[in-house]
Protein backbone atom coordinates (compact mmCIF):
# COMPACT_ATOMS: atom_id res chain seq x y z
CA UNK A 1 0.00 0.00 0.00
CA UNK A 2 1.14 3.53 -0.68
CA UNK A 3 -0.11 7.08 -0.92
CA UNK A 4 -1.00 8.40 -4.38
CA UNK A 5 -0.67 12.05 -3.35
CA UNK A 6 2.95 12.58 -4.55
CA UNK A 7 2.14 10.95 -7.88
CA UNK A 8 -0.97 13.08 -8.40
CA UNK A 9 0.87 16.28 -7.49
CA UNK A 10 3.69 15.46 -9.90
CA UNK A 11 1.30 14.71 -12.72
CA UNK A 12 -0.72 17.83 -12.01
CA UNK A 13 2.48 19.89 -12.20
CA UNK A 14 3.35 18.26 -15.51
CA UNK A 15 -0.11 18.94 -16.90
CA UNK A 16 0.08 22.55 -15.77
CA UNK A 17 3.45 22.93 -17.48
CA UNK A 18 1.89 21.77 -20.75
CA UNK A 19 -0.95 24.26 -20.25
CA UNK A 20 1.46 27.12 -19.63
CA UNK A 21 3.53 26.11 -22.62
CA UNK A 22 0.41 26.29 -24.77
CA UNK A 23 -0.57 29.73 -23.47
CA UNK A 24 2.77 31.50 -22.96
CA UNK A 25 5.53 29.80 -24.93
CA UNK A 26 6.31 30.26 -28.61
CA UNK A 27 4.74 27.75 -30.98
CA UNK A 28 7.94 25.77 -31.49
CA UNK A 29 8.38 25.33 -27.70
CA UNK A 30 4.78 24.20 -27.30
CA UNK A 31 5.30 21.69 -30.09
CA UNK A 32 8.47 20.32 -28.49
CA UNK A 33 6.72 19.93 -25.12
CA UNK A 34 4.00 17.78 -26.67
CA UNK A 35 6.43 15.98 -28.97
CA UNK A 36 8.25 14.75 -25.88
CA UNK A 37 5.32 12.45 -25.08
CA UNK A 38 5.21 11.29 -28.69
CA UNK A 39 8.90 10.47 -28.99
CA UNK A 40 10.03 9.41 -25.50
CA UNK A 41 9.34 5.75 -26.19
CA UNK A 42 10.96 5.59 -29.63
CA UNK A 43 14.19 3.71 -28.95
CA UNK A 44 15.18 2.65 -32.46
CA UNK A 45 13.88 3.02 -36.01
CA UNK A 46 15.62 2.04 -39.26
CA UNK A 47 13.53 0.82 -42.18
CA UNK A 48 16.69 -0.22 -44.03
CA UNK A 49 17.76 -2.73 -41.38
CA UNK A 50 16.71 -6.18 -42.68
CA UNK A 51 16.37 -7.65 -39.17
CA UNK A 52 14.89 -5.09 -36.75
CA UNK A 53 13.10 -2.05 -38.15
CA UNK A 54 11.67 -0.49 -34.99
CA UNK A 55 11.74 -0.79 -31.19
CA UNK A 56 9.24 1.25 -29.19
CA UNK A 57 8.21 1.37 -25.54
CA UNK A 58 4.81 2.78 -24.58
CA UNK A 59 2.63 3.25 -21.55
CA UNK A 60 -0.42 4.94 -20.09
CA UNK A 61 -1.41 6.31 -16.69
CA UNK A 62 -5.04 7.00 -15.76
CA UNK A 63 -6.08 8.21 -12.33
CA UNK A 64 -9.57 9.24 -11.31
CA UNK A 65 -11.77 10.35 -8.44
CA UNK A 66 -15.44 9.44 -8.17
CA UNK A 67 -18.24 10.52 -5.87
CA UNK A 68 -21.65 8.81 -6.05
CA UNK A 69 -24.90 9.11 -4.15
CA UNK A 70 -28.41 7.79 -4.62
CA UNK A 71 -31.01 5.29 -3.46
CA UNK A 72 -30.62 1.51 -3.83
CA UNK A 73 -33.48 -0.90 -4.59
CA UNK A 74 -33.84 -1.78 -0.93
CA UNK A 75 -34.66 1.87 -0.20
CA UNK A 76 -31.35 2.58 1.52
CA UNK A 77 -29.50 5.79 0.63
CA UNK A 78 -25.83 5.54 -0.28
CA UNK A 79 -23.09 8.15 -0.41
CA UNK A 80 -19.51 7.13 -1.23
CA UNK A 81 -16.33 8.49 -2.79
CA UNK A 82 -13.40 6.67 -4.38
CA UNK A 83 -9.93 7.27 -5.78
CA UNK A 84 -8.42 4.84 -8.23
CA UNK A 85 -5.48 4.24 -10.51
CA UNK A 86 -7.84 3.25 -13.29
CA UNK A 87 -5.17 1.98 -15.67
CA UNK A 88 -1.40 1.71 -15.42
CA UNK A 89 0.12 -0.11 -18.39
CA UNK A 90 3.51 -0.47 -20.02
CA UNK A 91 4.49 -2.32 -23.14
CA UNK A 92 6.94 -2.86 -25.96
CA UNK A 93 6.59 -3.20 -29.73
CA UNK A 94 9.22 -4.73 -32.00
CA UNK A 95 8.94 -4.63 -35.81
CA UNK A 96 11.25 -7.17 -37.42
CA UNK A 97 11.97 -9.05 -40.66
CA UNK A 98 10.06 -6.36 -42.61
CA UNK A 99 6.62 -7.89 -42.05
CA UNK A 100 6.40 -9.06 -38.42
CA UNK A 101 5.39 -7.25 -35.23
CA UNK A 102 5.62 -8.49 -31.64
CA UNK A 103 3.61 -6.40 -29.21
CA UNK A 104 3.03 -6.96 -25.49
CA UNK A 105 1.49 -4.80 -22.78
CA UNK A 106 1.37 -5.38 -19.00
CA UNK A 107 -1.15 -4.22 -16.41
CA UNK A 108 0.84 -2.82 -13.50
CA UNK A 109 -1.92 -2.00 -11.00
CA UNK A 110 -3.22 -4.83 -8.84
CA UNK A 111 -5.79 -3.02 -6.74
CA UNK A 112 -9.00 -1.21 -7.57
CA UNK A 113 -11.14 1.56 -6.08
CA UNK A 114 -9.47 2.79 -2.87
CA UNK A 115 -6.95 -0.06 -3.13
CA UNK A 116 -3.75 1.26 -4.71
CA UNK A 117 -1.22 -1.49 -5.10
CA UNK A 118 1.51 -1.54 -7.75
CA UNK A 119 2.89 -4.68 -9.34
CA UNK A 120 2.52 -6.87 -12.39
CA UNK A 121 -1.10 -8.03 -12.50
CA UNK A 122 -1.37 -9.75 -15.89
CA UNK A 123 -0.78 -9.30 -19.60
CA UNK A 124 -3.23 -6.83 -21.07
CA UNK A 125 -2.34 -7.99 -24.60
CA UNK A 126 0.34 -10.14 -26.20
CA UNK A 127 0.28 -10.64 -29.99
CA UNK A 128 2.45 -11.66 -32.91
CA UNK A 129 1.37 -10.11 -36.23
CA UNK A 130 2.25 -10.50 -39.88
CA UNK A 131 1.67 -7.42 -42.07
CA UNK A 132 1.78 -6.88 -45.82
CA UNK A 133 0.74 -3.84 -47.86
CA UNK A 134 -0.96 -5.70 -50.72
CA UNK A 135 -2.29 -9.26 -50.92
CA UNK A 136 -4.80 -10.65 -53.43
CA UNK A 137 -6.14 -7.17 -54.12
CA UNK A 138 -6.53 -6.31 -50.43
CA UNK A 139 -4.52 -3.52 -48.80
CA UNK A 140 -2.99 -3.21 -45.30
CA UNK A 141 -3.44 -6.90 -44.58
CA UNK A 142 -2.66 -7.96 -41.00
CA UNK A 143 -2.88 -11.37 -39.39
CA UNK A 144 -2.39 -11.45 -35.62
CA UNK A 145 -2.48 -14.21 -33.01
CA UNK A 146 -2.42 -14.04 -29.24
CA UNK A 147 -4.15 -12.36 -26.33
CA UNK A 148 -5.99 -9.43 -27.91
CA UNK A 149 -8.49 -6.72 -27.20
CA UNK A 150 -11.96 -7.78 -28.32
CA UNK A 151 -14.10 -5.06 -29.92
CA UNK A 152 -17.87 -5.04 -30.22
CA UNK A 153 -19.62 -1.69 -30.09
CA UNK A 154 -18.43 1.78 -31.03
CA UNK A 155 -16.98 2.66 -27.63
CA UNK A 156 -14.84 -0.49 -27.53
CA UNK A 157 -13.31 0.37 -30.90
CA UNK A 158 -11.94 3.53 -29.29
CA UNK A 159 -8.93 3.02 -27.05
CA UNK A 160 -9.24 4.02 -23.39
CA UNK A 161 -6.53 6.56 -24.22
CA UNK A 162 -8.96 8.44 -26.44
CA UNK A 163 -12.48 7.94 -25.07
CA UNK A 164 -14.23 11.23 -24.37
CA UNK A 165 -16.08 10.16 -21.22
CA UNK A 166 -14.44 9.06 -17.99
CA UNK A 167 -16.13 5.66 -18.30
CA UNK A 168 -17.70 3.96 -21.29
CA UNK A 169 -21.50 3.64 -21.24
CA UNK A 170 -23.10 0.94 -19.12
CA UNK A 171 -24.51 -0.95 -22.13
CA UNK A 172 -21.24 -0.54 -24.06
CA UNK A 173 -19.33 -2.12 -21.19
CA UNK A 174 -21.96 -4.86 -20.87
CA UNK A 175 -21.17 -6.08 -24.38
CA UNK A 176 -17.43 -5.35 -24.25
CA UNK A 177 -16.37 -5.47 -20.56
CA UNK A 178 -12.66 -5.28 -21.31
CA UNK A 179 -12.43 -8.80 -22.70
CA UNK A 180 -9.00 -10.10 -23.71
CA UNK A 181 -9.56 -13.45 -25.43
CA UNK A 182 -6.91 -15.52 -27.17
CA UNK A 183 -7.54 -15.67 -30.89
CA UNK A 184 -6.59 -15.24 -34.53
CA UNK A 185 -7.70 -11.97 -36.17
CA UNK A 186 -7.39 -11.00 -39.84
CA UNK A 187 -7.91 -7.42 -41.01
CA UNK A 188 -7.68 -5.87 -44.48
CA UNK A 189 -9.00 -3.01 -46.60
CA UNK A 190 -10.72 -3.02 -49.98
CA UNK A 191 -13.29 -0.87 -51.79
CA UNK A 192 -12.75 1.81 -49.17
CA UNK A 193 -13.94 -0.51 -46.38
CA UNK A 194 -12.09 -2.21 -43.52
CA UNK A 195 -12.85 -5.87 -42.94
CA UNK A 196 -12.08 -7.88 -39.80
CA UNK A 197 -12.65 -11.56 -39.15
CA UNK A 198 -11.54 -13.61 -36.18
CA UNK A 199 -11.85 -16.82 -34.24
CA UNK A 200 -11.45 -16.68 -30.47
CA UNK A 201 -11.11 -19.18 -27.66
CA UNK A 202 -13.91 -18.86 -25.10
CA UNK A 203 -11.54 -19.83 -22.27
CA UNK A 204 -11.51 -17.29 -19.44
CA UNK A 205 -8.94 -18.61 -16.98
CA UNK A 206 -5.61 -17.36 -18.32
CA UNK A 207 -3.46 -14.32 -17.56
CA UNK A 208 -1.46 -14.81 -20.76
CA UNK A 209 -2.19 -16.88 -23.88
CA UNK A 210 -5.26 -19.04 -23.36
CA UNK A 211 -5.93 -22.57 -24.57
CA UNK A 212 -8.59 -23.94 -26.90
CA UNK A 213 -10.25 -26.56 -24.71
CA UNK A 214 -13.56 -24.83 -23.92
CA UNK A 215 -14.92 -23.72 -27.29
CA UNK A 216 -14.72 -21.11 -30.03
CA UNK A 217 -16.44 -17.87 -30.96
CA UNK A 218 -16.46 -16.22 -34.39
CA UNK A 219 -16.29 -12.48 -35.06
CA UNK A 220 -16.89 -10.34 -38.16
CA UNK A 221 -16.53 -6.55 -38.34
CA UNK A 222 -16.96 -4.13 -41.24
CA UNK A 223 -16.20 -0.41 -41.23
CA UNK A 224 -17.09 1.93 -44.08
CA UNK A 225 -17.12 5.70 -43.93
CA UNK A 226 -18.58 6.51 -40.53
CA UNK A 227 -20.34 3.14 -40.23
CA UNK A 228 -19.14 0.22 -38.10
CA UNK A 229 -20.92 -3.14 -37.83
CA UNK A 230 -19.86 -5.99 -35.48
CA UNK A 231 -21.21 -9.50 -35.02
CA UNK A 232 -20.14 -12.31 -32.67
CA UNK A 233 -21.39 -15.89 -32.74
CA UNK A 234 -20.44 -18.07 -29.77
CA UNK A 235 -20.38 -21.80 -30.46
CA UNK A 236 -21.15 -22.37 -26.80
CA UNK A 237 -21.90 -25.74 -25.23
CA UNK A 238 -25.21 -25.52 -23.38
CA UNK A 239 -26.53 -28.53 -21.44
CA UNK A 240 -29.88 -28.34 -19.63
CA UNK A 241 -29.82 -24.57 -19.98
CA UNK A 242 -26.41 -24.24 -18.34
CA UNK A 243 -23.47 -22.96 -20.40
CA UNK A 244 -19.89 -24.12 -20.14
CA UNK A 245 -18.30 -22.49 -17.08
CA UNK A 246 -15.92 -19.56 -17.52
CA UNK A 247 -17.12 -18.62 -21.00
CA UNK A 248 -15.39 -15.28 -21.61
CA UNK A 249 -18.09 -13.77 -23.85
CA UNK A 250 -21.27 -14.59 -21.86
CA UNK A 251 -23.31 -14.24 -25.08
CA UNK A 252 -24.67 -16.81 -27.55
CA UNK A 253 -24.49 -14.01 -30.11
CA UNK A 254 -24.07 -10.24 -30.03
CA UNK A 255 -24.28 -7.45 -32.58
CA UNK A 256 -23.62 -3.73 -32.91
CA UNK A 257 -24.29 -1.09 -35.54
CA UNK A 258 -22.75 2.37 -35.13
CA UNK A 259 -22.48 5.59 -37.10
CA UNK A 260 -20.13 8.46 -36.29
CA UNK A 261 -19.62 11.71 -38.14
CA UNK A 262 -17.88 15.05 -37.73
CA UNK A 263 -19.05 18.48 -38.83
CA UNK A 264 -16.92 21.48 -37.90
CA UNK A 265 -16.41 21.35 -34.14
CA UNK A 266 -19.20 18.78 -33.73
CA UNK A 267 -18.81 15.03 -33.50
CA UNK A 268 -21.83 12.75 -32.99
CA UNK A 269 -21.95 9.02 -32.31
CA UNK A 270 -24.97 6.70 -32.62
CA UNK A 271 -24.71 3.06 -31.54
CA UNK A 272 -27.31 0.28 -31.23
CA UNK A 273 -26.47 -3.07 -29.60
CA UNK A 274 -28.43 -6.33 -29.38
CA UNK A 275 -27.53 -9.80 -28.15
CA UNK A 276 -28.68 -13.06 -26.62
CA UNK A 277 -27.19 -14.24 -23.33
CA UNK A 278 -26.16 -17.83 -22.62
CA UNK A 279 -29.45 -18.47 -20.81
CA UNK A 280 -31.42 -17.34 -23.87
CA UNK A 281 -32.54 -13.95 -22.53
CA UNK A 282 -31.91 -10.90 -24.71
CA UNK A 283 -30.13 -7.64 -23.84
CA UNK A 284 -30.24 -4.51 -25.99
CA UNK A 285 -29.55 -0.81 -25.87
CA UNK A 286 -28.55 2.38 -27.64
CA UNK A 287 -26.07 5.22 -27.12
CA UNK A 288 -26.20 8.78 -28.49
CA UNK A 289 -23.11 10.88 -27.77
CA UNK A 290 -22.58 14.37 -29.22
CA UNK A 291 -19.48 16.44 -28.45
CA UNK A 292 -18.50 20.01 -29.32
CA UNK A 293 -15.21 21.94 -28.99
CA UNK A 294 -15.92 25.18 -27.11
CA UNK A 295 -12.27 26.11 -27.68
CA UNK A 296 -10.90 24.38 -30.76
CA UNK A 297 -8.66 21.40 -29.87
CA UNK A 298 -8.60 22.48 -26.20
CA UNK A 299 -11.94 22.59 -24.35
CA UNK A 300 -14.63 20.10 -25.30
CA UNK A 301 -18.17 19.57 -24.03
CA UNK A 302 -19.54 16.01 -24.15
CA UNK A 303 -23.08 14.70 -23.67
CA UNK A 304 -24.25 11.08 -23.68
CA UNK A 305 -27.63 9.42 -23.34
CA UNK A 306 -27.81 5.65 -22.93
CA UNK A 307 -30.72 3.23 -22.79
CA UNK A 308 -30.36 -0.45 -21.86
CA UNK A 309 -33.07 -3.10 -21.63
CA UNK A 310 -33.31 -6.83 -20.96
CA UNK A 311 -35.85 -9.66 -21.07
CA UNK A 312 -35.02 -10.44 -17.46
CA UNK A 313 -33.18 -8.76 -14.60
CA UNK A 314 -29.70 -8.77 -16.14
CA UNK A 315 -28.61 -5.14 -15.71
CA UNK A 316 -26.88 -3.30 -12.88
CA UNK A 317 -26.03 0.29 -12.05
CA UNK A 318 -22.81 1.62 -13.62
CA UNK A 319 -19.90 -0.33 -12.15
CA UNK A 320 -17.81 2.74 -11.32
CA UNK A 321 -19.03 3.79 -8.90
CA UNK A 322 -22.74 3.50 -8.26
CA UNK A 323 -22.65 -0.30 -8.34
CA UNK A 324 -19.73 -0.28 -5.89
CA UNK A 325 -21.68 1.83 -3.40
CA UNK A 326 -25.22 0.45 -3.82
CA UNK A 327 -26.55 -3.09 -3.45
CA UNK A 328 -25.91 -5.53 -6.30
CA UNK A 329 -29.56 -6.23 -7.13
CA UNK A 330 -30.21 -6.34 -10.88
CA UNK A 331 -32.91 -4.74 -13.01
CA UNK A 332 -34.34 -4.90 -16.52
CA UNK A 333 -34.15 -1.25 -17.66
CA UNK A 334 -31.37 1.32 -17.26
CA UNK A 335 -31.32 4.97 -18.37
CA UNK A 336 -28.26 7.22 -18.01
CA UNK A 337 -27.44 10.77 -19.03
CA UNK A 338 -23.87 12.14 -18.87
CA UNK A 339 -22.49 15.66 -19.23
CA UNK A 340 -18.80 16.48 -19.13
CA UNK A 341 -15.99 18.90 -19.95
CA UNK A 342 -12.56 17.83 -21.20
CA UNK A 343 -9.41 19.95 -21.39
CA UNK A 344 -6.65 18.78 -23.75
CA UNK A 345 -3.10 19.89 -23.01
CA UNK A 346 -1.51 17.79 -25.77
CA UNK A 347 -4.46 16.17 -27.45
CA UNK A 348 -5.39 12.81 -25.93
CA UNK A 349 -1.81 12.32 -24.73
CA UNK A 350 -2.31 14.70 -21.83
CA UNK A 351 -5.78 15.74 -20.69
CA UNK A 352 -8.20 16.21 -17.80
CA UNK A 353 -11.77 14.85 -17.98
CA UNK A 354 -14.69 15.75 -15.74
CA UNK A 355 -18.22 14.40 -15.91
CA UNK A 356 -21.46 13.89 -14.03
CA UNK A 357 -24.00 11.15 -14.77
CA UNK A 358 -27.54 10.55 -13.56
CA UNK A 359 -29.01 7.09 -13.95
CA UNK A 360 -32.01 4.96 -13.03
CA UNK A 361 -32.37 1.19 -12.82
CA UNK A 362 -35.82 -0.42 -12.78
CA UNK A 363 -36.75 -3.99 -11.81
CA UNK A 364 -39.69 -5.97 -13.20
CA UNK A 365 -41.32 -6.15 -9.74
CA UNK A 366 -41.58 -2.37 -9.53
CA UNK A 367 -38.47 -1.73 -7.45
CA UNK A 368 -36.03 0.87 -8.71
CA UNK A 369 -32.73 2.57 -7.92
CA UNK A 370 -31.12 5.85 -8.93
CA UNK A 371 -27.71 7.44 -8.66
CA UNK A 372 -25.73 10.56 -9.44
CA UNK A 373 -22.00 10.08 -10.02
CA UNK A 374 -19.33 12.75 -10.44
CA UNK A 375 -15.91 11.93 -11.89
CA UNK A 376 -12.68 13.80 -12.50
CA UNK A 377 -9.77 12.09 -14.22
CA UNK A 378 -6.18 12.62 -15.32
CA UNK A 379 -5.21 10.74 -18.49
CA UNK A 380 -1.71 10.51 -19.97
CA UNK A 381 0.08 8.21 -22.39
CA UNK A 382 3.25 8.03 -24.44
TrEMBL record:
<protein>
    <recommendedName>
        <fullName>Porin</fullName>
    </recommendedName>
</protein>
<dbReference type="InterPro" id="IPR010870">
    <property type="entry name" value="Porin_O/P"/>
</dbReference>
<feature type="signal peptide">
    <location>
        <begin position="1"/>
        <end position="21"/>
    </location>
</feature>
<keyword id="KW-0732">Signal</keyword>
<dbReference type="InterPro" id="IPR023614">
    <property type="entry name" value="Porin_dom_sf"/>
</dbReference>
<dbReference type="Pfam" id="PF07396">
    <property type="entry name" value="Porin_O_P"/>
</dbReference>
Amino acid sequence: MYSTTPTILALSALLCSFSQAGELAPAEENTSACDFLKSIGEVYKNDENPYIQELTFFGRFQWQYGYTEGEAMDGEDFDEQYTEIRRLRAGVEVDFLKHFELKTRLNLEQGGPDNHRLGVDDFDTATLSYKVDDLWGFEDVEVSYGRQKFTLGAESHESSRKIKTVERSNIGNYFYSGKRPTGLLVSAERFGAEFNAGIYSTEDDSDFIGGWNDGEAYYVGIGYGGWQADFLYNEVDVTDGEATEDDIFEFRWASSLAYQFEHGRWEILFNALYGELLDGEEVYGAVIMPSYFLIEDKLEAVMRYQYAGSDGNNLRLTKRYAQEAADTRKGDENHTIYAGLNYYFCGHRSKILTGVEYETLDRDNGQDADAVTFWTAIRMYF
